[in-house]
UniProtKB/TrEMBL annotation:
Domain HTH gntR-type: 12-82
Name this polypeptide is given: GntR family transcriptional regulator
Coiled coil regions in record: none
UniProt keyword annotation of Transcription present: yes
Keywords in alphabetical order: DNA-binding, Transcription, Transcription regulation
Superkingdom of the source species: Bacteria
Pfam families named in the record: GntR
Organism in which the protein naturally occurs: Paenibacillus taihuensis
InterPro entries: Tscrpt_reg_HTH_GntR, WH-like_DNA-bd_sf, WH_DNA-bd_sf
Keyword Magnesium appears in the UniProt entry: no
GO MF annotation list: DNA binding; DNA-binding transcription factor activity
Amino acid sequence: MLYIELDIQGDVPMHEQIAQQIIAGIASGAIEPGKTLPSARRLASALRVKSQVVNKAYHTLLKEGFLQERYDGRLGVLVPSLAEMPKVTEAYMNRLQKQLQALAAEGRARGMSEAEFSKACVSIYRSDLTRMGDTLE
């Protein structure tokens, strides 16, 4: 079961939080290939946000290849098979590099060593990335 926890007061827009947590659910195996996600309206109701917020998250995930539209006569979005998941692209690597550079600079300014920064990155990468909060089911 996947949970989504929204930080209403945070700097990250809610649609990005939803998209990030769905990707984390896919990465951790909490959302399996072939799983149909709830409608945007249903998820929005469960999360107590406007359906446009969930629609925007779903649209982003569809565009990036983390979700697919159903083509079996039923409406909805589902998680593609592992073979159909998006791969590491040059655009992704550029985005990753920019984000890590900004965080590394902040870490250095705060007195963080290279070893501490590397250890934090590895720890985060190895974690299961799931959070507690509202459920998708």
